[in-house]
């Protein structure tokens, strides 16, 4: 069954490439986009098989979880309170609207530093915690790119080989 009057492989690859690109755009779940590409191809062709399909979708789900929890987890590991983490997430979203991805990063770093400094009165602790949170966001993004590229490459190997 063909859903679009275009080769399903072409559609899937375009969606999978969009998933990789979405991995670096805040608030756009690259893992879900990649899962959509795999799911479309499976729905249109019945391929890949069950084991490969479940594996690719599981990798996409891990990517989504990493997207949602990566920066919050790193902030917590750095010593930030749940309150600080939640406020930093809101600040990141607000600044994302006005300044783009750099604004989101600055929102997290600045908010975590300010609130943790206010909470403990220690500049070093505030800088350390903000550093953990900021590095966590960057590491989370890098891992999302790596995972969505892995989904793309694995999909191509499964389908074309």
Structural features, described:
Helix 1 packs antiparallel against helix 2 (30-45). The protein contains five helices and no strands. It has helices at residues 8-22, 30-45, 50-77, 82-120, 123-160. The model has no long low-confidence stretch (mean pLDDT 91). The chain has 161 residues and is mainly α.
Element pattern in H and E: HHHHH
Report the count of strand segments. 0
Distance between the termini: 22 Å
Mean pLDDT over the residues: 91
Compact description:
Helices cover 84% and strands 0% of the residues. By secondary structure, it is mostly helical.
What order do the helices and strands come in, and which of them pair?
Elements: H1 8-22, H2 30-45, H3 50-77, H4 82-120, H5 123-160
Helix pairs in contact: 1-2, 1-5, 2-3, 2-5, 3-5, 4-5
Note the main attributes of this structure.
single chain, 161 residues, mainly alpha, 84% helix
């Amino acid at each position: 069954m063909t859903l679009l009057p275009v080769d399903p492989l072409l559609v899937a690859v375009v969606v999978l490439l969009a998933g990789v690109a979405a991995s670096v755009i805040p608030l756009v779940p690259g893992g879900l986009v990649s899962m959509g590409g795999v799911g479309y191809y499976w729905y249109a062709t019945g391929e890949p098989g069950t084991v490969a399909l479940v594996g690719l979708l599981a990798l996409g789900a891990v990517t989504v979880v990493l997207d949602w929890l990566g920066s919050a987890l790193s902030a917590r590991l750095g010593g930030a309170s749940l309150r600080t983490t939640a406020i930093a997430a809101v600040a990141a979203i607000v600044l994302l609207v006005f300044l783009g991805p750099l604004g989101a990063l600055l929102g997290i770093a600045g908010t975590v530093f300010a609130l943790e400094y206010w909470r403990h009165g220690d500049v070093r602790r505030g800088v350390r915690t903000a550093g953990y949170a900021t590095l966590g966001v960057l590491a989370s993004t890098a891992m999302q790119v790596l995972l969505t590229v892995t989904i793309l490459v694995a999909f191509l190997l499964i389908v074309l080989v």
